[in-house]
Amino acid sequence: MKFNRKTAGKGIIILNLFTIAVFLLVILKILPYESISGGQLDSYEAAVRTATTSIVMIIYGIPVVAAASGLVRVKAYKKFYIGWLIFALILMAVLFFEASIIGVIVVSFGLPLIAVAAGVIEYRQFNLASKIYLWLSFFFACLNTLGNLFVSTWFEKIIMGLVTLIQAMLYFYLARSNPKRKHRKG
């Protein structure tokens, strides 16, 4: 298997889908709610709120990663990204009113990239917006990995710690690599 930007993007998306599955297992009471948030949640209801917010934020990030890694040709999906930009702005407002400052910050990282993909910002800015998003995602994945190492639950320490470590490495690879430029004839 050749390791390239698209493979790294697929890896991040697969790990994000795994994380969504973990949150869904908590919501469905298959996994105990203490399995998330470092065992710091005091009730099942708090776990559902945390899991739901996390799922929405992860879903938000999947098309952003797909665009940044080159999995999709953003110019071909302009209408989709216009809708995604509207969704991102609504999500930021909801997170702001829920006092989830971290959520607002994370969502705002992807806004310039989505705006470029939607055609609101000139396409020439795509690589810069992509780099900023990927470096910030790498930084947050590193913080998440460190946080997972210091929690009391073995599930987050081992399983989710490994997931976030791999995500950090993939984000690092994407942030450091340059998208291939198409050579024009003539």
Calculate Rg over CA atoms.
17 Å
Helix and strand string, N-terminal first?
HHHHHH
Number of domains: 1
Strand content: under 5%
Calculate the mean pLDDT score and round it. Answer: 84
> Main beta sheet, described?
none
User: What is the general shape?
Assistant: globular
Continuous helix count: 6
Structural class: mainly alpha
How many strands?
Answer: 0
Uncertain segments? 182-186
> What is the CA–CA distance across the termini?
34 Å
Helical proportion, percent range: over 70%
Give a verbal description of the structure:
With 186 residues, this protein is mostly helical. The chain has one domain (5-176). 71% of the residues lie in helices and 0% in strands. It is built from 6 helices and no strands. It has helices at residues 5-27, 44-68, 78-97, 101-117, 126-149, 154-176. Helix 2 runs antiparallel to helix 3, helix 3 runs antiparallel to helix 4 and helix 5 packs antiparallel against helix 6. The longest helix is centred in the N-terminal third of the chain and has 25 residues, at 44-68. The two termini are 34 Å apart.
Provide a concise account of the structure shown.
The protein contains six helices and no strands. It is mostly helical and 186 residues long. The chain crosses the membrane at residues 12-31, 51-72, 79-96, 102-121, 133-152, 158-175.
